[in-house]
Amino acid sequence: MRKGLERSETLVFWNVANRILRGFLLVVQPRPTRYPGQATLDMLGFSLSPRHSTRGRWRTNGRKPIVLKLFTLTAWFQPDSNSGVLYMSEAFDLIVVGAGPGGYVAAIRASQLGMTVAVVEREKQLGGTCLRVGCIPSKALLETSELFEQSQRHFADRGLVVKGVTVDVAQMMKHKDGVVSTLDSGIQGLLKKNKIERFFGNGKLKGNGIVEVTGSMPTTITGKKILIATGSVSSSFPGMQPDGDRIGTSTEALIWPEVPKHLVVIGAGVIGLELGTVWRRLGSQVTVLEYLPRILPGIDEQVANEAKKIFEKQGLTFKLGTKVTSVTASGTTCTIQIEGAEPITCDRVLIAVGRKPCTDNLGLEAAGVQTDKRGFIQVSAGYQTTAAGVYAVGDVIGGAMLAHKAEEEGIACVEKMATGHGHINYNTIPAVIYTEPEIASVGANEDALKQAGIKYKSGRFSFAANGRARAAGHTDGFVKVLADEATDRILGVHIIGTHAGELIHEAAVAMEFGASSEDLARCCHAHPTLSEAVKEAAMAVDKRAIHS
Ligand SMILES: Cc1cc2nc3c(=O)[nH]c(=O)nc-3n(C[C@H](O)[C@H](O)[C@H](O)COP(=O)(O)OP(=O)(O)OC[C@H]3O[C@@H](n4cnc5c(N)ncnc54)[C@H](O)[C@@H]3O)c2cc1C
C-alpha cells in the first residue's frame, strides 16, 4: 500500500482494483463456477453462486453468518484509511448511518469503548443538519446580525459613535461557511483519531446486518449492530411547497444572497423566530404568520408572552390565528393566501412549520424496522428498533429535536450496547432559543405541571433588578424557578434574558442532582453576574428575594 496516497485516491485505487478482479472472475470463470481456491472456500462454507458472481459476492452455503462476518469478501480488501494498512474493512462491530450529532458522537463513544466502527454519511460534510444547515450556521448569522443591530441601535447610547456600518451579505455568508467548514474538518479529524471508517454515500439497510452504500463509490458493509441516526428534514403543508428560491425552508434562509425587503415567515416556532430575527436585524420587514393563538408552542406561556412583546418592540410583526392556504411565487413576488383575510405579498417566504424524520431510501421495511404514524422510528428504552441488532437515536426517533438530545441518546445507546448500562435524563435536557434576549428552559413548565396536577411554588426575578444586566444594557426578561410545593425539589427553570442559554445550565445541573430551590438559593453567586438573577429567583420561591 502506497503510504503517500490521499484517502480519496486510495479508495479510487482499490475500487478500480476491486472491479477489475470482479470483472476477471466474471469473464474467465465459466458457470458453474470453478476458481482458484474454491475447494478451501467450500470447506469454509463459501461459494460464489452464479447469481451473485455477477456482483462478486460471496455467499454462505447455508452456514451461519459468523463465517460471513469473518470473511466479508464482498468488496474485497480495502485499506485502513488511517494507517494505510490493508485489512478487511467491510465487517464492523457497529455501523452508524448518518453523521449528525447523534451519529458521529455515538461513533466516537463506541470506538472509545473498543468497537470497530463505520460511519455512512451521504453528504460530503459531516456534522449533519446541525453543522451544515442548522445550529451552527444559524448561530453564526445570529451573532453577526446582532453585532450589526448593536452598532445601529445601541452603541450611540453608550457614547460609541460608529458611522457607515453596512451589511456585506456575501462576506457574512463567507464567515458562516468558514465556521462550518472548520468544524467539519474537526469532526473528520475526530473520526480519524478514533479510527472510525467513513463511507461516503447513501446507506440502505438490507437486513442481516448488511448496509449497502450507494454513491460514487458503492460498496456493501456488514455490522454486528447498526445504529440509524439519519435525523430530520424540513416539512411543509399542502399548498406551500418550497421552490428552492423565493419560497424556502431554513436551509435556503441561511444562504439568501441579499436582504429581503419583506420576508414572511410561516410558523412562530424556534427556527422561524431565529431566522426571522436574523433578516429583521439586517433590514427586512418581517411578518410572522402562526396558526396557533400564541408564539413558541411548548415554551412556558408567560415566557412566550414576554418574548412576543419584546420581539414586537424590536420590529417583528405577528399575525396569530392565521391559516395559510397557499403560497406561490411569480418572478420576485410571492403571494400568500390566508383563510378569511386578504393575501399578503412579499419577496421571500420562509416555511418553518416543523421537521419530519429522514428515512427516505433507508430500507426500513426490508430490514423490519417499524415507524409510528408520523414516520418516526419506534424504539425501546435502549434505543432498540423492531429489528434485532438495529438501533436508532436523534431526530429520527422523535421527541425534542435538539442536537444535544441526539448526542446524549447516541452515547447512552452505545454505552448500553457495550456495557448494558446507558443513562439519559429527559427531564433535564435544556432547550435554548438564540434570539436576543435568549430564551432557555429546563424541566417542566407551568402548563405541564397544571395538566399533571402537580402542586408547585414559583419564584421570579427580573433582569431589570440585576446589576450586571443593567451595566450591559440588557434588562429585558426574567428568571422563573418552579419547585414542588411539598418537597421544594426544583421541577423547572425558565429564563428569558441575555445569555439565558448559558445561565440555564446551572439549573440543569442542580436538577440533575435533585436540588431543592433552597439548595440553589443558598449557593453563593459572584457579584455582579447575571447568575445572581437565578439565585434570586430561587430565593423568590420562598418569598425572600433581596433585590425585588
Ligand atoms: C435551522 C436550524 C437550526 C437549529 N438550531 C439548533 C440549535 O441551536 N440547537 C439545537 O440543539 N438544535 C438545533 N437544531 C436541530 C438540530 O439540528 C437537530 O436536532 C440535530 O441535528 C439532530 O441530530 P441527528 O444526528 O439526529 O440528525 P441530523 O443532524 O439531521 O443528521 C443526520 C445525518 O444523516 C444523514 N443521512 C440521512 N439519511 C442518510 C442515509 N440514508 N445514508 C447516509 N446518510 C444519511 C444526513 O445527511 C445527515 O447528515 C436546528 C435545526 C435547524 C434546521
Give a description of the structure.
There is one protein chain. By secondary structure, the protein is of the alpha/beta class. The protein has 4 domains: 7-84, no CATH class; 94-233 and 357-424, FAD/NAD(P)-binding domain, CATH 3.50.50.60; 247-353, 3-Layer(bba) Sandwich (FAD/NAD(P)-binding domain); 428-540, FAD/NAD-linked reductase, C-terminal dimerisation domain (Enolase-like, domain 1), CATH 3.30.390.30. Helices cover 36% and strands 22% of the residues. Strands 5, 6, 7, 8, 9, 10 and 21 form a 7-stranded mixed sheet that branches. Helix 5 packs parallel to helix 13 and helix 7 packs antiparallel against helix 8 (169-193). The longest helix has 25 residues, at 169-193. Bound molecules: flavin-adenine dinucleotide. The site of flavin-adenine dinucleotide has 37 residues, from helix 5, strand 6, helix 6, helix 7 and strand 8.
